[in-house]
Design a protein that fits this description.
This protein has about 90 residues and is of the alpha+beta class. It has a single domain, classed as Alpha-Beta Plaits (2-Layer Sandwich), CATH 3.30.70.240. It is about 30% helix and about 30% strand. The protein has three helices and four strands. The protein is globular, with a radius of gyration of 13 Å.
């Protein structure tokens, strides 16, 4: 399975995107420690992920889906790093 970063920016209320958040939580594995960013574990490719999420999107949201590689760095909690290290290293 691969890990994808799904990041977005929207106008208005998060309540408008509850369906999007529900769908993101249905992936095999998911991580959501940063506002407006998710890591998801899936067999789908970026196009398939977009097709899966598309019904929950509107013109007030921008969304980017990018496959995550093994070269990563940042400033996160230990719990976040454990999830990332465990899931990305499985590839």
């Amino acid at each position: 399975m691969k890990i994808y970063l799904i990041t977005y920016d929207y106008k208005g209320s998060a309540d408008n995107y509850s369906g999007l958040f529900t769908k993101l939580k249905k992936f095999t594995g998911w991580w959501h420690y940063l506002k407006n960013s998710w890591l998801v574990k899936t067999d789908k490719n970026a196009n398939q992920i977009m097709e899966y999420l598309e019904s929950e999107l509107d013109n007030d949201i921008n969304l980017l889906i990018v496959e995550v590689g093994k070269d990563y760095q940042g400033w996160l909690s230990e719990k976040a790093w454990k999830w990332i290290d465990r899931n990305i290293d499985e590839e």
